[in-house]
Write a structure and sequence with these properties.
Strand content of chain A: 15-25%
Oligomer: homodimer
Largest interface: A-B, 87 and 86 residues
Low-confidence stretches of chain A: 1-7, 322-328
Radius of gyration of chain A: 23 Å
Distance between the termini of chain A: 42 Å
Amino acid sequence: MTESDLLVVNLTPGRWGDPAQVVELPAAALEALKHLGVRRPRAKTAPKDEAGTSTEVTAALEKLLGTEHVKTDLDTRWAHTRGYSTPDLLRHRAGDTTDMPAAVVYPGSHDDVQALLTACSEQGVAVVPYAGGTSVVGGLAPQGTQFVAVDLQRLNRLREVDEVSRTATIEAGVRGTAAEALLAERGYTLGHFPQSYEGASIGGYAATRSSGQASAGYGRFDQMVVGLTLATPSGTIELGRAPMSAAGPDLRQLVLGSEGTLGIITSVVLRIRPRPTERSFEGWRFDSFDQGLAALRQLAQDGPLPTVLRLSDEAETAINLADPNVLAGGPGGALAIVGFEGPRTPVRRAEAAEVLTAAGGQSVGEGPGETWRQGRYRAPYLRDPLLDEGALVETLETAGFWSTLPALKAAVTDALVSSLSGQGTPPVVLCHISHVYETGASLYFTVLSAQTDDPVAQWRQAKAAASQAIAAAGGTITHHHAVGTDHRDAYVTEVGPLAIEALQAVKQVLDPNGILNPGILIPAR
Amino acid sequence: MTESDLLVVNLTPGRWGDPAQVVELPAAALEALKHLGVRRPRAKTAPKDEAGTSTEVTAALEKLLGTEHVKTDLDTRWAHTRGYSTPDLLRHRAGDTTDMPAAVVYPGSHDDVQALLTACSEQGVAVVPYAGGTSVVGGLAPQGTQFVAVDLQRLNRLREVDEVSRTATIEAGVRGTAAEALLAERGYTLGHFPQSYEGASIGGYAATRSSGQASAGYGRFDQMVVGLTLATPSGTIELGRAPMSAAGPDLRQLVLGSEGTLGIITSVVLRIRPRPTERSFEGWRFDSFDQGLAALRQLAQDGPLPTVLRLSDEAETAINLADPNVLAGGPGGALAIVGFEGPRTPVRRAEAAEVLTAAGGQSVGEGPGETWRQGRYRAPYLRDPLLDEGALVETLETAGFWSTLPALKAAVTDALVSSLSGQGTPPVVLCHISHVYETGASLYFTVLSAQTDDPVAQWRQAKAAASQAIAAAGGTITHHHAVGTDHRDAYVTEVGPLAIEALQAVKQVLDPNGILNPGILIPAR
């Protein structure tokens, strides 16, 4: 049992990441923004305090958790307001307090969470679980209701490591960074490194089906979970007596991705692996994205499967790479990052090199690979100074089967270009593949344009166009960002009203008074 | 689109498998049975006809499907009565018609199934989906209700192969053997080879979370399903727009394992792989089961992972092996089968050999490996002649995490020995591991004893003792046989009443009149 608080990065509300690592835009970037018509927006506005929760509710919560674990001051509540999508950041800058919790509570155990949910359900008080706070899909902003944010940071223990079964029982409030540090002391790793790694937590990973940059080698987070404990207003559910079972539906997979609407995951049992001692990250150049895609598909289907496998399209390759040598093979190239970790790294790397070469790839060495690896959590830091300058910058993602990917990529790109150009702000759209499977892969888009006078509405329109394009091209509305409120309508369309009704029925059993994340993931019944 | 009827093995009701492959017990086995006190049971009884379904219901079904696709004759109904558990076979021999369907219908398409369910729901007629009919857990015997069996054999098409994404869309009624033959024409395989392979179908695999003998290499069936179509009395649900998604809970995993209680799966989209051109199956001897278990764990956790990986305990090794050379290393040994298929077979085999040797294993060559491979569907054929002689023979299985397996194995063995010895019929109990994961494995038990005068009650008592032992030792009640009616109470205990209530709520939405497999998997609400 180790306290992990010391290992936590303190996120600044409204700006991404560790304040010690703030990024300034290079002069060339500032110059480029001018060509997009970017202009400095109006100054920021401080939030005004709004009514907190009733003293009656506060008193009940204080009685349950202790006075020091219930906070209603403006700073704490503002720091728990929304997540890190661009609309979230823009609303933060505008001092918009509409989604601010009425109180923030800090339960210290599963029993605390269970008691809290029972009490809030009895009193009809809405509850939003808050772990890392890194949602980019409106997962922390229930609509049209006052609510209490349940900050899980005190559920911060690595409870057990079973070295024979290679599993670890970890509480929901443990940050990804802290989990890795705690496991490293024992020689293990989860291998889960999403872009939100510095801020996100184990409970959030589970509730949102997170997928890390090393998903090819270590799997998605939902593939790491072999057991979980869920607190609900109706009681506790514990699942996972074996890695796999034929005892009915896999109910773990019903809880994973439920985004706090069915209960609060208080701990998970995770598959762990020995920390790798070998590593190799290499850049590979392809003449085109399509050529690179075929090469990635071959590795995903016939192996050897790298630990990290990514491919930037021509536009992203051109923008991201300062090193012109990467494009020495000619203009219009697409850069892949092929990373191996763990046993037999040199052998697997050599085998992959054969496949990639035969597929038309050209090694550009470990330089670009290491550059990517070392800078892999830096991208989100760029967004804040870009917003400062008046740029609109946001990402969105999808996934599909291999045969659908080229059309899916074209459709989403066209929708974004068309919508933003139609609003007078022609964008740059970049795309990469960052998660591969035997049958398909993810597509991740980055969009950059000038802001209009109402950038939140501007993005809403572009995002709606992209979401429609995804649906029409047969992709899923999200591969790893989750649903939240932003994707809710698209999610309903994707799985259909009957499946949604089934989920609502589950919610009715576990959360009969509808206090858990109302309006997130699924519409109220 | 290819008809696959020709490839289907015609199962004999009440006896396992292809009648052309009937097995006779060797003289030594007959001698051994005497030591267990086995005596010939009473003669079989033919079934007597009971009332079929009402002419009103029959007329409605005939109107929907055509007269030729609705059958009420005794032979057809008797052939659709129960599955292949030992109690099922014993009841069959006794001519017990209590679980016989009132009619058997043969829909020809998803739309037929959808219309049928709508009609039966309106009329309150219970419906049992019947695909391969190979349940060994009472999955075809809803309790206390008249019902119509829905035989899916006309849903027999391989609808689409996407060679880029490596997926195949296959209808639910296609037998495993037929699916493999159809895919082989295109150069592909599912790699799903359960013990029930000769009889079971794609829809049954999906509804019960089947796991095949090559699960280490090809995965479980639930890991092969990337999409599915479900007909329910409330309408159709289609799932699976990408290999993986963060759009809410993975609802595919809610349908898989639902055992016909939430709807009828009419087709699935499955991950396929190229047919392997290389193969090597090798036997390995370990001094003890525990030593072999440690070796299997090492391959499962650190690789190279074989395609097939099995380990018989000392008792099973001694009984199954005619070849005394296998035990040349000394008495009390445990035999493992280590099979590789596909690319790099010789290299992977050599790497595995290093691991196995270091773990104390001794290669006994390809002889035992090939013997196992060629005889791998033969074991169930032995049961019928054993029952003929008056032996009680049955299997049961569980799974757990690696650290729990030794105690789990001991607890189940003790429970079976204690229960059957207490009934005056001391058993032989054999065990093997046949499915491995990074964090755990399955345990499969075979039990052999003399029958008492009431062998169904005799087994019920032994099974209850084993089930309690599994629960107490933390295992799951079934790794790949599914729940049916036999495991229902244990399943409720395993996931808890709140999870069951959530499933019942889903069922209420999809099957509001409770016509689908009533009493199977979950108790009526």
